[in-house]
């Protein structure tokens, strides 16, 4: 037994009151599904059933879209400053209830409380605060003097950051005057339903936000519904492609934020201790369930041994276990299905000849768990270098020169994010120009801020969320600003967003 | 051959000598120190802050509090110090909690050189060390001969440990070899002249608040360890910015890397500004997760502090009685 054994430090579950069942949130009311269907949501760390949730069918989705349509007229006609008041109120309520929501998120998703408390919830509140600030300044956003909302947005979010992805979707939509129907992921519906309660607490007019829970079929109904004007989706590239096919030839606008296989590139002059932290945070944050995770480590051959020693030493200190323990670094894998996928890909890595390493760590007996894992000797030809694993599995590749690093980093169908670690500023700028990724971090990784646009190249999707750019996805006729208007804008606001060049 | 040795003795001397090529001249030393990996300030501070969120409760907290008490260099470094003041501090070091004799003793009493004999006499055979600040503490602005005489007198008076300050002026103007040589000579002056062949342990203070950058702190750490420091220490407690978690983390990482590279093991002492149990526990977490449990002993980690002890004692009383006592239930010395 270690000398300094941290005693269990569990966050109290008593701060959150989960009802035995939840309905759909439509037109300001919780209602059952038309056909009465329900499904269970589990805690992935214990497999305990947390609650029963309504499974929305076609008829329910239709009701929700109609409610949103009905609310759209009044909501979009409100002065921006009035809409801002609701968003500020929602942001403040989220802050006030952040402990409750953090515990809920950790229970339903399996992520460690340290992350839901210190990353997810502060970012959720920040996102609402940020877009609340835009609501009465849309005329100055660079999208014309009087930008108009699109109408009803159908939004589908993933299970990795349930409440944060909800914030990314709902905050800009409401700020710009749209109303929404949002479908949370099947395995993590609870925080969206708590958010519905927050909307009521904030006095948000009925129908502005509607939450329909369900599986993929509910999402498909929503996407195909003729009454929506906009589809915003975050999730797998496979589903994203299906959505793009469904809406092709319709008037619906689409933004897709899909998968990734980001390269975290470490040069021999990198600040090595911080690079190790960045690699660990890049791939093991949120159990690696992060679309922009740094799942490929590209390390310069001249520092490979030193870096891998340091990385292994650091990985040995990661604490895997109860998500509600405040000292847990890595929580549970979100579902049995995801665990099976991670296992299959990790096994493929071994079968294809890469060398597998994981620190000794005892995994709980119930729930879904996967130890933080490292593969060395990986090449571009391995499946674990090409396919998104969406789990705590890092593939290590090497490079010799900056040119080779860029070539390998870009050699993927994805293009969501990348990281560069070097003390040389000119190289950072050179690399950032060459890397085809929506976000490039230098000497850091997985840093998020509501003011910073986020989105992908290639099969990682299109459209931007966050920042001024994130408004565009919810505004009609978002064209070049008029010449009359341009005089008031900073120079960069006149052009298209950074990530648009390569589309 | 043991994989690591402390920074004194023949084996250590041999291992340090294996690095002689990097300390052979000013330019070699500069190249080496400037070739160390850089420190990214944002990343470093984020790591230190994350470690600061560890939640240490119940049994772990009780262990950490007792460990922290046993690691304190209980310090008085005032112009107004008198034999009476030093004697009462020594008494407190021996029996920190008058209401609970199970409270552990502190590691050392840290005083100016002229108070060493007084402290030594007051501590008798308690096992508590006497540490003396030397080398024109805290500014380090004096001739080398004065600094060496300062050190020798403290050692002759019975000091078990010498806390020297480096010449920050020389360091900041890039005269690294001068700083290196000075540390080496002070280390030589720590040898007791009683023919025992033993030496006082040398702690080297960087005054990190004056070195300013983390890169400088890492370079100073390697410089001092190459010169034979037994301990590296952040601060004097006499400037505006003293020990901080990120600065201490740089020291811990340097010690970790130095052991891996040279096979010599060095202790770490953050000093100044650590006043609460909560802070002290954060430092212990940082040691635990950077250097590991081998360093969780007063032999390898110290706190330079004065008011910290009372807060630890109050927290200790709270754990054992379930109630908060208050400042009147611990001693003011």
From TrEMBL, chain A:
Domain Aldehyde dehydrogenase: 33-475
Biased composition, class Basic and acidic residues, residue ranges: 482-503
UniProt-listed Gene3D superfamilies: Aldehyde Dehydrogenase, Chain A, domain 1, Aldehyde Dehydrogenase, Chain A, domain 2
Active site, per annotation: 257
Keyword Transit peptide belongs to the record: no
InterPro entries in alphabetical order: Ald_DH/histidinol_DH, Ald_DH_C, Ald_DH_CS_GLU, Ald_DH_N, Aldehyde_DH_dom
PROSITE patterns, alphabetized: ALDEHYDE_DEHYDR_GLU (PS00687)
Region (Disordered): 476-503
Transmembrane domains' residue ranges: none
GO molecular-function terms, A-Z: oxidoreductase activity, acting on the aldehyde or oxo group of donors, NAD or NADP as acceptor
Keywords for this protein: Oxidoreductase
Family: Belongs to the aldehyde dehydrogenase family.
Annotated protein name in UniProt: Aldehyde dehydrogenase family protein
Organism from which the protein derives: Streptomyces malaysiensis subsp. samsunensis
Automatic annotation (TrEMBL), chain B:
EC number: 4.1.2.4
Single GO biological process annotation from the record: carbohydrate catabolic process
GO CC field: cytoplasm
Alphabetized Pfam families for the sequence: DeoC
Keywords: Lyase, Schiff base
Keyword Cell wall biogenesis/degradation among record annotations: no
Gene Ontology MF: a single term: deoxyribose-phosphate aldolase activity
SUPFAM superfamilies in the cross-refs: Aldolase
The organism's place on the tree of life at top rank: Bacteria
Pathway field: Carbohydrate degradation; 2-deoxy-D-ribose 1-phosphate degradation; D-glyceraldehyde 3-phosphate and acetaldehyde from 2-deoxy-alpha-D-ribose 1-phosphate: step 2/2
Substrates-to-products reaction catalysed: 2-deoxy-D-ribose 5-phosphate = D-glyceraldehyde 3-phosphate + acetaldehyde
Enzyme superclass (EC): lyase
Keyword Lyase: yes
Family listed: Belongs to the DeoC/FbaB aldolase family. DeoC type 2 subfamily.
Protein name: Deoxyribose-phosphate aldolase
Biological source species: Streptomyces malaysiensis subsp. samsunensis
């Amino acid at each position: 037994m270690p000398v300094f054994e941290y005693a269990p430090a569990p966050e109290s579950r008593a701060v959150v009151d989960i009802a035995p069942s939840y309905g759909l949130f439509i037109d300001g009311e919780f209602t059952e599904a038309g056909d009465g269907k329900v499904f269970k949501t589990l805690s992935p760390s214990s497999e305990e059933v947390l609650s029963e949730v309504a499974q929305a069918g076609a008829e329910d989705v239709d009701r929700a879209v109609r409610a949103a349509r009905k609310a759209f007229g009044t909501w979009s006609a409100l002065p921006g400053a009035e809409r801002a008041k609701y968003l500020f109120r929602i942001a403040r309520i989220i802050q006030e209830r952040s402990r409750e929501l953090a515990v809920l998120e950790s229970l339903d998703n399996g992520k460690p409380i340290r992350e839901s408390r210190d990353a997810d919830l502060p970012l959720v509140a920040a996102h609402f605060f940020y877009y609340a600030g835009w609501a009465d300044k849309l005329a100055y956003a660079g999208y014309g003097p009087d930008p108009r909302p699109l109408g009803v947005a159908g939004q589908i979010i993933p299970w990795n950051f349930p409440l944060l992805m909800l914030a990314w979707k709902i905050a800009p939509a409401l700020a710009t005057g749209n109303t929404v129907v949002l479908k949370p992921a099947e395995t993590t519906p609870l925080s969206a339903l708590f958010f519905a309660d927050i909307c009521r607490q904030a006095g948000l007019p009925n129908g502005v936000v509607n939450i329909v829970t369900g599986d993929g079929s509910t999402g498909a109904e929503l996407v195909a519904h003729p009454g929506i004007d906009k589809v915003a989706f975050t999730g797998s590239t496979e589903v994203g492609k299906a959505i793009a096919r469904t809406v092709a030839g319709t008037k619906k606008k689409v933004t897709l934020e899909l998968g990734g296989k980001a390269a975290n590139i470490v040069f021999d002059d990198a600040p090595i201790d911080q690079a190790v932290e960045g690699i660990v945070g890049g791939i093991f944050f949120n159990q690696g369930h992060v679309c922009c995770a740094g799942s490929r480590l590209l390390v310069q051959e001249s520092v490979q041994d030193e870096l891998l020693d340091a990385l292994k030493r650091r990985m040995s200190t990661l604490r895997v276990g109860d998500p509600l323990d405040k000292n847990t670094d890595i929580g549970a894998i979100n579902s049995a299905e995801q665990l099976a996928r991670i296992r299959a890909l990790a096994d493929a890595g071994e079968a294809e000849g890469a060398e597998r390493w994981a620190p000794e760590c005892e995994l709980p007996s119930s729930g879904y768990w996967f130890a933080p894992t490292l593969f060395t000797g990986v090449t571009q030809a391995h499946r674990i270098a090409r396919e998104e694993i969406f789990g705590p599995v890092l593939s290590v590749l090497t490079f010799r020169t900056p040119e080779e690093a860029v070539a390998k980093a870009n050699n993927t169908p994805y293009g969501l994010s990348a990281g560069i670690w070097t003390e040389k500023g000119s190289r950072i700028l050179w690399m950032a120009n060459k890397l085809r990724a929506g976000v490039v971090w230098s000497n850091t990784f997985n840093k998020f801020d509501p003011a910073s646009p986020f989105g992908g190249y290639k099969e990682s999707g299109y459209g931007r969320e966050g920042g001024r750019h994130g408004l565009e996805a919810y505004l009609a006729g978002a064209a070049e600003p008029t010449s009359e208007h341009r005089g008031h804008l900073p120079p960069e606001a006149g052009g298209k967003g950074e990530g648009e060049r390569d589309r | 051959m043991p994989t690591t040795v402390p920074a004194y003795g023949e084996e250590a001397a041999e291992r340090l000598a294996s690095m002689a090529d990097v300390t052979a001249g000013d330019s070699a030393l500069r190249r080496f120190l400037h070739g160390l990996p850089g420190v990214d300030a944002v990343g470093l501070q984020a790591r230190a802050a994350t470690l600061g969120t560890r939640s240490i409760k119940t049994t772990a907290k009780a262990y950490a509090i007792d460990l922290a008490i046993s690691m304190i260099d209980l310090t008085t470094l005032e112009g107004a110090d008198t034999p009476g003041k030093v004697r009462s501090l020594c008494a407190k070091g021996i029996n920190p909690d008058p209401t609970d004799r199970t409270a552990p003793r502190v590691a050392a009493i840290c005083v100016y050189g002229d108070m060493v004999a007084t402290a030594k006499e007051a501590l008798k055979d308690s096992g508590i060390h006497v540490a003396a600040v030397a080398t024109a503490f805290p500014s380090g602005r004096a001739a080398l001969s004065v600094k060496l005489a300062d050190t020798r007198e403290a050692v002759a008076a019975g000091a078990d440990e010498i806390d020297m300050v480096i010449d920050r002026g020389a360091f900041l103007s890039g005269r690294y070899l001068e700083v290196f040589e000075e540390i080496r000579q002070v280390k030589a002056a720590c040898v007791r002249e009683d023919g025992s062949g033993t030496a006082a342990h040398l702690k080297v203070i960087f005054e990190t608040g004056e070195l300013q950058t983390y890169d400088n702190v890492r370079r100073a750490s390697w410089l001092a360890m190459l010169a034979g420091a037994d301990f590296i220490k952040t601060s004097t407690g006499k400037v505006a910015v003293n020990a901080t978690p990120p600065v201490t983390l740089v020291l811990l990482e340097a010690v970790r890397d130095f052991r891996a590279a040279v096979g010599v093991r060095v202790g770490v002492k953050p000093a100044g500004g650590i006043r609460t149990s909560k802070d002290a526990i954060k430092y212990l977490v940082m040691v635990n997760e950077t250097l590991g449990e081998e360093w969780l002993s007063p032999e390898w980690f110290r706190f330079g502090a004065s008011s910290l002890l009372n807060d630890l004692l109050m927290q200790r009383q709270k754990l054992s009685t379930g109630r908060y006592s208050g400042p009147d239930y611990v001693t003011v010395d």
